[in-house]
Amino acid sequence: MKKPNGHEIIQLFEKFSPKSLAMEGDKIGLQIGRLNQKVKRVMIALDVLENVIDEAIEKDVQLIIAHHPPIFRPLKNIITDTVQGRMIEKLIKHDIAVYAAHTNLDVAKGGVNDLLADALGLKEVEVLVPTFETGLKKLVVFVPETHADELRRVLGDVGAGYIGNYSHCSFSTSGTGRFMPGENTNPYIGSAGKIEAVDEVRIETIVPDKLLKKVISAMIKAHPYEEVAYDVYPLENKGEVLGLGRVGKIDEMTLGEFAEKVKTALDVNHVRVVGDLNTKVTKVAVLGGDGNKYWQHAKFKGADVYITGDIYYHTAHDAMMEGLNMIDPGHNVEKIMKKGLTNILLKLCDEAGYEVEIFPSEINTDPFQFK
Ligand SMILES: [Zn+2]
Fold first, then answer.
1. Are the beta carbons of 305 and 327 closer than 8 angstroms?
2. Cβ–Cβ under 8 Å, residues 112 and 67
3. 130 forms bridges with which residues in the sheet?
4. Whose C-alpha in 56, 80, 221, 260 is 20 to 30 A from the C-alpha of 318?
5. How far is the CA of 47 from the centre of ligand 1 (A)?
6. pTM of the model
7. CA 299 to chain centre
8. Dihedrals φ, ψ of 34, to 5°?
């Protein structure tokens, strides 16, 4: 087992939730402290409040990964007898780094919105507000017939050739490859200075941009030739759609029954409901955090009910008049990411052979209570 530093842990984390998925202008990444130190304990938090920092100090944490960035507006000063100044002072004095993963964690596959959709038991889940489409490349490689099957398998195993739910997709044509090995070569077939003709196969497949490097290096490793002939073409087709919020189906029930289900699933005592409690609902849109500006996406997608936090009075009126039911369980339901992200990161660190403790913050940071 390896004792990782902060950089190594964040590298793994960003494979799951890359910074490139964040909305423009979002304050993400390392906010306070440094990553070039050994990390024994990581704490996952929704908010970085002063009591959360005290918890981190008490539990000997070196890295906090938080959903809400503690520094959202640029600081003009750091005065240590103000709350914010004192918080930064405490973090730095105790060598605790804070890394924020905000909208990139909302968008990420398996991130906040997927965790919410899972908890609500949504089926046939789609993205509610598309914000990002992965780019694709076409990869073409020429390989001796004898090695074609093995190379196709390797390409598929590292993630090339995904179309929808089908993996290992490729197309092959046979032909003749010709080459003349030069001096100082060590050819797999043929000899220096003599033109050689070999029965080869042209294998073509598609690769998401983010996997291209990995796929090419696996391909070169698995290919028998010293110099591998391959082409990479840019494609106009777009790959997977990622974005904010999710929409999916549930077994039919009334809005009132569903509101009860939301309370249990998202672990809250109260929800605010807009709409007739007796209407039937089957299609549900959910967006973690403040989703006021996306209610029309929910309507457009044909959702019967839209679940989001911080719903304004006038947004509720607008949606009500358009016949869209709404449930507001509060912004704090994003607390689901604490356990969710702990599990994901534990698995990644385990696979990487990292010796590190990862746990969710136990502090309840919901500022609201109901009397
Ligand atoms: Zn939020």
1. yes
2. yes
3. 243
4. 260
5. 9
6. 0.83
7. 25
8. -140, 160
264's tokens: 């249990």
- Residue 112 Cα to ligand 1 midpoint, Å, equals 9
CA of 310 to the centre of ligand 1 (A): 10
The CA 87 to ligand 1 mean position distance, Å, reads 20
Ligand 1 centroid, distance to 2 Cα (angstroms): 34
Question: What pLDDT, in 10s, does the model give residues 39-90?
Answer: 999 999 999 999 999 999 999 999 999 999 999 988 999 999 999 999 999 9
Model pLDDT for residues 156-170, shown as the tens digit of each residue: 999 999 887 789 999
Ligand 1 centroid–CA 236 distance in Å is: 34
Residues in the chain: 371
Half-sphere exposure of 215 (CA within 13 A, CB side): 29
- Rounded distance, CA 330 to CA 197, Å? 69
How remote is the CA of residue 314 from the centroid of ligand 1, in Å? 20
Beta carbons within 8 Å of 99's beta carbon, 6+ residues apart: 6, 10, 13, 29, 30, 31, 35, 63, 64, 65, 66
What residues pair up with 305 in beta bridges, in sequence order? Answer: 284, 325
Distance of CA 245 from the midpoint of ligand 1 (Å): 12
Whole-Å CA distances, 317 to 300, 320, 323, 327, 328: 17, 5, 10, 13, 14
- For the four alpha carbons of 288, 290, 292 and 293, in that order, the dihedral sign comes to negative
Provide the 3-class DSSP secondary structure of residue 371. Answer: coil
Q: Taking the mean position of all CA atoms in its chain, how far away is CA 367? A: 27
Q: How far is the CA of 86 from the centre of ligand 1 (A)?
A: 23
Q: How much is the mean pLDDT over the chain? A: 95
* Residue 30: C-alpha distances to residues 23, 88, 92 (Å): 16, 13, 13
Contacts 24+ apart (CB under 8 A), 367-370: 368/330, 368/332, 370/269, 370/270
Q: How far is the CA of 106 from the centre of ligand 1 (A)?
A: 9
Q: What percent of the chain has pLDDT over 70?
A: 100
Separation of CA 331 and ligand 1 centre (Å):
6
For the stretch 347-365, pLDDT in tens is 999 999 999 999 999 999 9
